[in-house]
């Protein structure tokens, strides 16, 4: 994989709207179970950097709150994302970055599913299968080069 060659040289960039969430006393109490909602998940992934561009997934409209579904009582999270172009070769890598960020940030009780939004990628079925197969994800994360790229993309995600 050569990420110096860009698949999409001129992606459309969108304005970022920031909204700060207030810190509450319960945020520091380990005895209080924190409910996870789509906004919290979005805050975790919106600043992930695209592998090809120095832009965030939010700026490229790859992710947005409306495509994040959280069922806290059932411990499930579904994130759907939209690649910048229908033949984006970085779709699996972007999805893997989202998965790693959520695995590192959400409580272990959550089952996380990552999917390409229906109709937005020519190989969405294949990419979705890759992103939600534990063995494939584990194998990808054993690749030190790939893990370095993922960590670079996550470096700006605060």
Q: How does this model look, in words?
A:
The structure is a single chain. The chain is built from 5 helices and 3 strands. It has 158 residues and is of the alpha+beta class. It has a 3-stranded mixed beta sheet. α2 runs parallel beside α3 and α2 crosses α5. The chain is globular, with a radius of gyration of 16 Å.
Concise synopsis of the structure shown:
The protein has 158 residues and is of the alpha+beta class.
What is the terminal separation in angstroms? 27 Å
Oligomerization category of the chains in this entry: single chain
| CATH architectural label | 2-Layer Sandwich
How would the global form be characterised?
globular
Q: How many individual helices?
A: 5
Low-confidence blocks of residues? none
Spatial strand order of the main sheet: 1-2-3
Share of helix among residues? 25-40%
Rg from Cα = 16 Å
| Largest beta-sheet characterization | 3 strands, mixed
- Average pLDDT reading: 87
CATH-assigned homologous superfamily = Fe-S cluster assembly (FSCA)
SSE string, helices as H and strands as E: HEEHEHHH
Structural class: alpha+beta
How is the CATH topology named?
Answer: GMP Synthetase, Chain A, domain 3
Strand content: 5-15%
The counted number of beta strands is 3
**Number of separate domains:** 1
- Can you tell me the CATH class? Alpha Beta
GO biological process, one term: protein maturation
Family: Belongs to the MIP18 family.
Keywords: Chromosome partition
Organism: Coemansia erecta
């Amino acid at each position: 994989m050569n990420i110096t060659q860009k698949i999409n040289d001129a992606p459309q960039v969108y304005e970022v709207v920031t909204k700060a969430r207030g810190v509450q006393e319960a945020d520091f109490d380990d005895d209080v179970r924190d409910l996870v909602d789509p906004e919290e998940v979005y805050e975790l992934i919106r600043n992930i950097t695209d592998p090809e561009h120095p832009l965030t997934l939010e700026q490229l409209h790859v992710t947005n709150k409306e495509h994040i579904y959280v069922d806290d009582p059932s411990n499930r999270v579904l994130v759907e994302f939209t690649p910048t172009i229908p033949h984006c070769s970085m779709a699996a890598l972007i999805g893997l970055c989202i998965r790693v960020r959520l695995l590192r940030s959400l409580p272990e009780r959550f089952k996380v599913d990552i999917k390409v939004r229906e109709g937005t990628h020519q190989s969405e079925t294949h990419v979705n299968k890759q992103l939600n197969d534990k063995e494939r994800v584990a194998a990808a994360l054993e690749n030190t080069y790939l893990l370095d790229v993922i960590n670079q993309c996550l470096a700006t995600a605060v």
